[in-house]
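Sample intake sheet
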Amino acid sequence: MPGRTQKAMLSFAVFDSTGPAGEWSTADSHVFGQDEVPVPAEVRAEPGRIVCEKHSAEAAGLATIFPPVDESSGCPLFLQTCLLPERDEPYLLSLELARQRIMTLFNKLEDWSLTDLPIDHPAMAAIDGARQAFTKALVSHRLNRGGDGSYSAEADRLSREALELALKASGALVAAQTERALPDRVSGATYANAVGKDLSEGPLSGPAVKSPNDTGLVLPVKPAVSVGLNPVQFSEPLQKLVTDGCDFVALPTRWRDMEPDEGKYSFGPTDRWIEWAVRHAKMPVSAGPVVDLGRSNVPDWLYIWEHDYETLREVVYEHVKNVITRYRRTVPRWTVLSGLNRNENFQLSFEQMMDLTRMTMLLARKLHPQGKMQIEVLHPFSGEPGHRPRSLPGALYAEMVQQAGIGVDAWAVRLELDRPRPGMMRRDLMALSSALDRYALLDRPIAVTAVSRAQEPGAAEMNEDDAIWLRKAMELVVSKPSVMSFVWQEQELPPGAKGPMPGSLIDATGQPKPAIRHAIALRKSVQSGDAVATGTSAEAANA
């Protein structure tokens, strides 16, 4: 169009089995900048390419769903490129995704202190295979480009093979890291090494210290394990499960359930569990979140104040005061806020978001000075807020909270996991591990407040392969030296409930469900100090 300035686009060539892709879904794609922060951009598909029109000229990357090389055995994964400068010619998407993943592999070798692995170790062999495949793809890409800058299907095929090998190498490296870290974490060797003492001298105690490679805190205590309860479910089999298989009672306090009608509280179910925990089980209680403004957690009457922040602030103040005042003598740890950074329901400005965070945390500390206060981040992967302009990535929100001087004893993280499979978009264990590593850099303990299986209500029970994969994910979580606690939660919708609530932890016969059995077994091995990671890096490399 005359008079319109043509600006350079960040674009990517994409192929399918027949050549340049005629169609490509960009529904879940977004552009990100430094520190993986999403940036405003229009992402659209055109024949044979993805076009990203940004509002700034800085280098950026693309996060998108990428289909597997073998659709019969793989599944689409949410992957990302490195930061790339704008240019008129497109990049080859498969090649750039492989480049980023191989870069991650070498970074993690350093972060996880695994550079001493022998060259014939399965993880190292897998990484070398991925590197060689990438080099072959890169050479083909340079030799087979058309005169107009176009790419060949052969270059894409080789790039996809390199990416597939890099993803397998990721699984092998995560397995190697867990195999090494988990036994040392539960035996106390990780803490002993961090403080420069000999574990043979006896049990060590003391404050948390920074890791020798400056990747977060190393905690002196073993990670505590529990399961998330539904307060309305109260029975002897559930009590026995918690007594035999948990280190603490994890009790949700959904606002919708606590105050279904304005000013009228329903404390009965929560009272019953807390009384049992304190008087009979003699177990500590971790409760919350007290405030979660997500759609599934707020009471319907609160929407009256949706667009009146000053009144909403007052209502939140009163709710926090009522709940914490009631239970401050029996609950030592609180998740005060949850998911505020997502802005998925009540739309807050950045100033209002920070003001509400400051107010609730200060009030909680005033009401319960001896209590431990944490803030929960939902779905903490960097790309989650990509399509909500006022949202903040969880790690960025956490950094801003700490920079503002708002005291936080720990950062809580809530995750949904499922074994990757055909037809489902998932992140792999490397993405999970990397996300936890990023929160560790905040130098606060991490409380994984809920890990749940991402499934639809009424879905079939997980098979043994699913359960084993989830066990590996659990082991990965508790192997992290900054993780102080881990909670498994059944993600189902009980009758009459709006939004996700913990479903039943037991089956019709009163026995724990498969994932619960794995969580309990993991807890026992952690407490005994002989936890050993399931599977091997060789198996992961061949998966």
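Comment: The chain is about 40% helix and 15% strand. The first helix runs from residue 93 to 111.
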